[in-house]
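Q: Could you fold this chain for me?
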Amino acid sequence: MEHRAIRQGGPADYTCAHMLTVHVYEDGKGLHLLEDASLSSAWPGLAGRSIWVDVENPTEEEARALADVCGFHHLTVEDALTPVQPPKVEEFGNYLFLLFRGLRPSEEGLELEGYKVAAYLGPGFLVTVHRRPVPACLEVSRLVLAKDLTMESQMDRVLHAVVDRMMDELLPILDRSEERLEEIEETIFSGAPPQQALHELLHLKRQLLTIRRLVAPQREMLGRLARRDLPYIEERTSHYFRDVYDHVARLEETTIVLTDLASGALEAHLSVASNRLNEIVKVLTIFSAIWMPLTFLAGVYGMNFEFLPELKIRWFYPSLWGFWILISVGMLYFFRRRHWI
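A: Sure. Below is the predicted structure, expressed as structure tokens.
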């Protein structure tokens, strides 16, 4: 086995960073290192060899080498390097082309960043291509080097290890979403929900829908790998893919449940806000209804006419106040009897 890396640019410079990692196992000779290997020089004749090549942010020369040297169809190379491509699997004469998509939190932790891993699986070789660093590939690379994950001729095992870790990255995201949904529900039913809760609910629902759109097509792909509907998947490896399939199925079910909970919380938030608005409108309406006859009477007796009746009565003004109070109390009693307040 051999591990080789070439990197240019700073560690955070994803657009300029370039890495080529080559793992080689040569039967009978064990592990060895190929010095100054490029993709063209590292690609073996595969006679007694197994190779895993992990290409990160390939150069134009390496992209052409994927088609010219490795013999991959140029359309698959375009799909591997195109940012927006749905998960899929295509069968060619001597290899499989698979596209997997993953999600991970952004550096700020507020949004989800999507990434893509393209894989070419054939007899004795595995080539993975991605634009940005993929933690799953780095972790599997360490396992292969430490001999905790045997490579030899089991390239499908290496592919399973990468895909398994990509799917595992979704579980903490769903756990955090579930915890946040519970907190928002408590806030909604504890009193007047803040406006921020509505924005968070819409944000969580959008994230859950993104995860659901990502998981659903990959569940079908993993089902084909688990059933051995595709070549280059050994029977012993299909059991591992079946485990990943079950895991992804549970993730999809959890995502559906959380999406329904988010929709229910959103409806509850709108209902609480609507009820609160109705209470406010009801109070204002009651005040308006009470003040309406009082304003009418005050308007009538506020007119400046010389012969306005009752103006010469000594007790008219106190009687008028008593009449106003009686109207107000009577209207409140009427509203109470009708259960409007």
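A (continued): The beta strands are 19-26, 49-56, 88-91, 96-105, 112-122, 125-130.
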